[in-house]
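Batch manifest, entry 17 of 40.
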Amino acid sequence: MTRFSLQFGQTKPGLCYLERPTVYGVCPRGEAAIAVAKIGRAAPFDYDLPGGGIETDEDEPGALMREFAEETGLTVWPSHVLGRAGQFWINRGEPRNSLATFYEVEKTGDDGDPTEPDHALVWLSPQDAIAKMRHEAHAWAIMHWLRERKAKAAPHRAE
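Output type: structure tokens
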């Protein structure tokens, strides 16, 4: 079983968790909001960072750009890796360990419509997004992104 340094979620005894390479992105709109995929046709909704599984013929950036378009209608470009984390969860009755790479992405094109019928783009403050995330790994990625932005914005002090 593969595990990243950061592993979220709990396993249930007796279940075999399928490992799935995945990729997700944090797409800021200014300083006040990030793109979030709202999933479901009716409440209660799930909230995830846009992204998903990497197909066998894809690399991480290609999969992330495809997933963003499918889930949010946004055209994005991955700018840099934020980190990696695993997430144990049950997806439609299937035990999974999502082995995720998280990127910061830049919005590069006009908004379109998601092609996944049960997904919608919502813009949330990072704090609201953290509170609504279905997966702990996604909340961690947003927090890590916030801290990274804060560190870049802070003036450097001599030690």
